[in-house]
From TrEMBL:
<keyword id="KW-0677">Repeat</keyword>
<dbReference type="InterPro" id="IPR020472">
    <property type="entry name" value="WD40_PAC1"/>
</dbReference>
<feature type="region of interest" description="Disordered">
    <location>
        <begin position="310"/>
        <end position="335"/>
    </location>
</feature>
<dbReference type="InterPro" id="IPR008271">
    <property type="entry name" value="Ser/Thr_kinase_AS"/>
</dbReference>
<feature type="domain" description="Protein kinase">
    <location>
        <begin position="37"/>
        <end position="299"/>
    </location>
</feature>
<feature type="repeat" description="WD">
    <location>
        <begin position="481"/>
        <end position="512"/>
    </location>
</feature>
<feature type="repeat" description="WD">
    <location>
        <begin position="438"/>
        <end position="479"/>
    </location>
</feature>
<dbReference type="Pfam" id="PF00069">
    <property type="entry name" value="Pkinase"/>
</dbReference>
<dbReference type="InterPro" id="IPR011009">
    <property type="entry name" value="Kinase-like_dom_sf"/>
</dbReference>
<feature type="repeat" description="WD">
    <location>
        <begin position="397"/>
        <end position="438"/>
    </location>
</feature>
<feature type="repeat" description="WD">
    <location>
        <begin position="624"/>
        <end position="663"/>
    </location>
</feature>
<dbReference type="InterPro" id="IPR001680">
    <property type="entry name" value="WD40_rpt"/>
</dbReference>
<dbReference type="InterPro" id="IPR019775">
    <property type="entry name" value="WD40_repeat_CS"/>
</dbReference>
<keyword id="KW-0853">WD repeat</keyword>
<dbReference type="InterPro" id="IPR036322">
    <property type="entry name" value="WD40_repeat_dom_sf"/>
</dbReference>
<dbReference type="Pfam" id="PF00400">
    <property type="entry name" value="WD40"/>
</dbReference>
<protein>
    <recommendedName>
        <fullName>Protein kinase domain-containing protein</fullName>
    </recommendedName>
</protein>
């Protein structure tokens, strides 16, 4: 179905609009700019505009259309155009992507007055107001507050660095990607910091933008400055840390104008609360003046948190340093190392290098290059030396035209399968470095899986279908249409190959009878009878996993939850199944695995941590710290765990000693997914370009 956006069209959703270029009712163009087809209205209550979902080929977009009643209001039109102007200059995962031609005029049929349009990246996730409601309006922890403050300060560093300030920061204008990255949206109120503007503060001609409870006093008077964004940031954090709106009588006294929030956030330390209070100082001059100063204050807060440790602690994790390019992430030295000379603090790599040189043990390069990790189990009481390896590029596979979301290496070690936002699944021959088969969906492909014998490939995504293909030739076998009501994000087949499970962005999990009694693909029953069981997880699901004995299904995303499959069989029809929720991560779970004996569950999260869980007691048993950014994926090989992050790093852990033993760097992009070939080559996806990259481990230097 295509939707007509002509504001006076009597039937914009005419049933014959599906494959047409012009509306069957009014004759207006249905393909905007020759690229975008509008599919549905998301909201007509969004300020000055209507918000639609549109598609460029198979890639979802957000289309904003200015309501026609504002066309004659020059200030409103200016705000609308400014959002496109600002966003087109920014390249950061914390802001929606907009192309330079993202703003355009659309002329409906038989109307002289155009519609003002803006196309931008669609963010798959809730805003923070919605997120708070979804998770029960519970205040966030100090760790989460510091992580999110860092992310938002990093975004503002970019925005201010381009001589703009946002002017409308509030929970509704901050969205949360499934990866855990916050995204600042709605740049329509952004203002350019020109000399003329700064000189004319107080001029009544300057447009005032106000959001009750989040707007600072000077902005209410039409005199916003860059530090106005810091006030709104502070008020937003207070809402998240207290779960109270700014005008709630529990924190705001309208008679005295007192804003007393600390008693409602007992989990927040005094140093962090002091920083937040400084952010919301009534006078802009009394607030931190730059994003750099905010990041420095956060580092000081963190140093106080570890001040009970010896000053010489070298294992403390550095705090992220703000950077205009998040793909060139750096870290600043931990203040706890202040006993070192200043020049040493500015060169943390030198300390790590000298420490590694003093402690390093010769590596079994040959074994590592054969795909094995060359470390014998060590003494659990002795911290292992951290070795450092780098990689060199071997090959780059091109062909996809959109982000690559999933990756799967078959057991033959040379057949790779990839899934992309361009609506295709590709089967690659790694030996030849070429695509063998291209399989097509009608929309973004989010996840892929295979049957246990790897004779059938299964794919799914935004078109809400689950499709089945034969391997290795990619021949279509059939599909389940409308398998879910929204985007399907995860697939998994249980260990005996009998059950397929799928999960979507709203938390619905469905179990399907994948094979019949003879072991054949059970397409008939799945397509006609539907799923055998439906579960409801706590929010979006990013990954699914069965225990090796098939007794428990594990879902990870907004929450980490365990589902007892035996209880599913015993439950009465329609009865709600209550999962066990594992508490410990402070952000989304991205990937999971489990040890061969089913005793230890491992989860990787956007909170930068890898957690180990005791499956017998269903409690957290360890935290693996060492990553400096979101941990996107992991790979388990016996007692060795590989984990990869958005900071272009893979860490290899000894699970017995619960410590990292290898750090692999040299990757050119963040690592969203990776796999390892039998010859030791590492295959990765990630970054802004839709490439698959192959890497070779370099020979380690002689000790």
């Amino acid at each position: 179905m295509s939707l007509c956006i002509n504001p006076v069209c009597p039937q914009p959703n005419h049933p014959d609009n599906g494959g047409r270029d012009a509306c069957a009712t009014c004759g207006s163009a249905l393909v905007l700019q020759g690229r975008y087809r509008v599919m549905r209205l998301i909201s007509s209550d969004s300020g000055f505009g209507r918000v639609y979902e549109a598609y460029e080929r198979n890639i979802p977009k957000i289309l904003k259309v200015l309501k026609e009643g504002y066309n004659a209001n020059a200030k409103v039109v200016e705000l609308f155009r400014r959002e496109a102007q600002v966003l087109s200059q920014l390249n950061h995962p914390g802001v929606p992507r907009v192309e330079t031609e993202g703003y355009f005029l659309y002329y409906p049929a038989n109307r002289a007055e155009p519609s003002h349009c803006l196309v931008m990246e669609k963010i798959d996730g809730p805003n923070l107001k919605q997120w708070m409601v979804q998770q029960g309006n519970h205040p966030i922890s100090e760790k989460q507050a510091m992580l999110w403050m860092t992310q938002l300060a990093d975004v503002l560093d970019l925005v201010h660095g381009h001589n703009y300030f946002h002017r409308d920061i509030k929970p509704e204008n901050i969205m949360l990607r499934p990866s855990g990255q916050l995204v600042l949206v709605d740049f329509g109120a952004a203002r350019e910091m020109t000399q003329t503007y700064m000189a004319n503060l107080g001029d009544s001609g300057i447009t005032t933008v106000s959001s009750a409870g989040y707007t600072p006093p000077e902005q209410e008077q039409g005199q916003a400055v860059p530090q106005s964004d810091f006030y709104a940031l502070g008020r937003t954090l207070i809402y998240l840390m207290t779960a109270k709106l700014p005008n709630d009588s529990a924190i705001y006294n309208s008679r005295t104008n007192a804003f007393l929030w600390r008693s409602l956030a007992p989990q927040i330390s005094a140093p962090l609360a002091d920083l937040v209070d400084d952010l919301i100082a009534p006078a802009a001059a009394n607030r931190p003046q730059t994003t750099t100063s905010i990041l420095e204050r956060l580092a000081q807060v963190r140093s106080r948190q570890v001040s009970g440790l010896p000053r010489q602690v070298a294992g403390a994790t550095p705090w992220p340093e703000t950077t205009l390019n998040p793909r060139e992430g750096k870290t600043q030295p931990d203040p706890a190392r202040s006993f070192l000379p200043p020049w040493f603090d500015r060169r943390p790599w030198l300390l790590a290098g000298l420490t590694g040189l003093a402690l390093a043990v010769p590596l079994g390069w040959y074994a590592l290059s054969r795909g094995a990790i060359p470390f014998a189990p060590g003494d659990a009481n002795t911290a292992p030396a951290l070795g450092n390896l780098t990689v060199s590029s071997v090959a780059v596979l091109t062909g996809h035209s959109g982000d690559i979301y999933d990756l799967l290496l078959l057991r033959d070690g040379k057949t790779l399968v990839s899934a992309s936002a361009d609506g295709t699944v590709r089967i690659w021959d790694l030996e030849a470095g070429a695509v063998r088969h291209t399989l097509t969906h009608s929309n973004v492909v989010q996840a892929i899986a295979t049957t246990t014998d790897q004779t059938t490939l299964i794919s799914t995504g935004d078109d809400r279908t689950i499709r089945f293909w034969s391997l290795p030739d990619g021949r279509p076998l059939g599909q389940i249409d409308n398998a879910h009501g929204t985007t399907i994000r995860a697939l998994e087949v249980n260990r005996n190959g009998r059950i397929l499970v799928s999960a979507d962005s709203e938390g619905t999990i469905k179990l399907w009878p994948l094979t019949d009694d003879n072991g054949g693909l059970n397409l008939g029953e799945m397509t006609v009878a539907g799923s055998a069981q439906t579960l409801e997880a706590d929010g979006t699901v990013n990954d699914l996993l069965f225990t090796r004995d098939n007794s428990v299904l594990i879902s990870g995303g907004k929450s980490l939850q365990l589902w007892d499959l035996a209880s599913l069989e015993e439950a009465a029809a329609g009865a709600a199944i209550i999962p066990t929720t594992l508490e410990g991560h402070t952000s989304f779970v991205n990937r999971m695995d489990i040890t061969d004996d089913d005793k230890t569950l491992i989860s990787a999260s956007a909170d930068q941590n890898v957690l180990l869980w005791d499956m017998a007691t269903r409690t957290q048993s360890a935290v693996l710290k060492g990553h400096q950014s979101y941990v996107n994926t992991l790979r388990l090989e016996g007692p060795r765990l590989w984990s990869a992050d958005a900071d272009k790093t893979i860490l290899v852990w000894d699970l017995h000693q619960q410590a990292p033993i290898q750090k692999i760097t040299g990757f050119e992009t963040d690592i969203w997914r990776f796999t390892v070939r039998p010859n030791g080559e590492i295959v990765t996806i990630g970054g802004v370009q839709p490439y698959i990259r192959l890497w070779r481990l370099n020979q380690p230097p002689a000790p």
